[in-house]
TrEMBL record:
Protein name as catalogued: AAA family ATPase
Superkingdom of origin: Bacteria
Domain AAA: 3-178
Keyword field: Coiled coil
Coiled-coil intervals, chain numbering: 91-118
Gene source species: Duganella flavida
One Pfam family named in its UniProt record: AAA_31
InterPro entries for this protein: AAA_dom, DNA_Partitioning_ATPase, P-loop_NTPase
């Protein structure tokens, strides 16, 4: 059965989508069977995996509303060697439409149950909000991966996310854990980055992943080609870091 992870942080632009797409591709390189779930109406993970978000036959939206199942909606990321449950802006409507539905926090969990034997990892790219969509991600997951930049405001907002995760753990999903904080877009030449990074290790101990993702232009360029950075330039520092992070995750799930 797949281990399911949300990549979440309610801030935008902190590297959630880059992390989800490249971890998926990194795990695929390590022969793991991966499904990426795009839970963001922006559809950036869908495009970054090489799937055209315009004109999807079915998407996360239909799956959440129960009008399509995952097996019918998923597509293959050819460059990434993983499956994708794609999304586009239609998904924004689900937020409102789900209010009427039973079991509305568990729509995604229930839908994924039908395919979880086919994968080792299911990775969920969350939108930048603590919304009903994100809540569905948290209810479906065994753990949360929190990407963060090592900058002055990094910790601001983290407590809201941690409190939400605690509430979900207490009331809706006792399996849910914070797996770890992932330092991304790291610039080792900046003293401030080094300081914040050291502070994170002090405060959060082994909840901070050992792998650090550097700021690397190849990772930023790759989406415009519809290819994960890991595939686009496998020898780049960014790609190598995400492959190393994949290996760290494979080790972690053996202990779960
Ligand atoms: P989010 O999904 O949290 O909004 P993204 O993954 O889309 O964040 O990243 C925001 C921007 O930063 C994007 O333009 C992305 O290409 C860039 N980016 C993310 N990680 C890196 C990195 N390690 N090095 C360079 N650019 C990065
Ligand atoms: Mg994103």
């Amino acid at each position: 059965m797949a281990k399911i992870f949300c990549v979440a942080n309610q801030k935008g632009g902190v590297g959630k989508t880059t992390t989800t797409v490249n971890l998926a591709a990194g795990l695929a390189k390590l022969d793991q069977r991966v499904l990426l779930v795009d839970l963001d109406p922006q559809g950036n993970a869908t495009m970054g995996a090489g799937i055209n978000k315009a004109g999807l036959k079915a998407s996360t939206y239909e799956v959440m509303l129960g009008t399509a199942d995952v097996a019918a909606a998923r597509q293959r990321s050819e460059p990434g060697h993983f499956d994708v449950l794609p999304s586009n802006r239609e998904l924004a409507g689900a937020e409102v439409e789900m209010v009427e539905l039973d079991n509305r926090e568990r729509r995604l969990k229930d839908a994924l149950a039908a395919v979880d034997k086919e994968y080792d990892f299911i990775l969920i790219d969350c939108p930048p909000a603590l919304s009903m969509l994100t809540l569905n991600g948290l209810c479906a997951a065994h753990g949360v991966i929190i990407p963060m930049q090592c900058e002055y405001y990094a910790l601001e907002g983290l407590s809201d996310l941690v409190n939400t995760i605690k509430k979900v753990h207490a009331n809706l999903n006792p399996d849910l854990k914070i797996i770890g904080l992932l330092r991304v877009m790291f610039d080792p030449r900046m003293t401030l980055s080094q300081q914040v990074s050291a502070q994170l290790e002090q405060h959060f101990g082994d909840k901070v992943f050992k792998t650090i993702i550097p700021r690397n232009v190849r990772l930023a360029e790759a989406p415009s080609y519809g290819v994960p950075g890991v595939t686009f330039d496998p020898t780049s520092k960014g790609a190598q870091a995400y492959i190393a992070f994949g290996a760290e995750m494979v080790k972690r799930i053996k202990k779960m």
